[in-house]
Amino acid sequence: MFILLVVGLVGIGVAIALFAPAKVLGAEEPPRPVTATVVETGSCGQGMDTVEWDAGGEKKQAKLDGCGHRKGETVEIVLTGNDMVQSAASVPVGLPVGRRLTALLLCMAALAGGFYAFLFRYAPLRAPAVLPAPKQQPVS
Hints:
Number of strands: 5
CATH architecture of the domain at 34-90: Beta Barrel
Strand content: 15-25%
Radius of gyration: 31 Å
CATH class of the domain at 34-90: Mainly Beta
Number of helices: 2
Shape: rod-shaped
């Protein structure tokens, strides 16, 4: 009965950890993409493109961590620093489920190993593995 309780609680914990919003678990809010216009193009072998976007009424410019765009082209960017931005398409979208799932599976493996060690150490001894000798019939 105890093992069913533990498995049920672990299952509920896995469901909460996988489906709870990332903000509840302390993750940072994902950056929001901003529409920018390419002002200067840089050749892919030597430089980066420069983009310009509207930030609260004022125009800002920064280097785009990418190249090969045409002048006047609009791109979606994510602000990464004061002097550098990157394309919004290169930022991973969604929850970091892989790390959560890895940690939860590690905990479940440790729990199963601990339970197995508990059973191995404290389980009552079973009957010996040696078969009893067959009974001999009395000779008449």
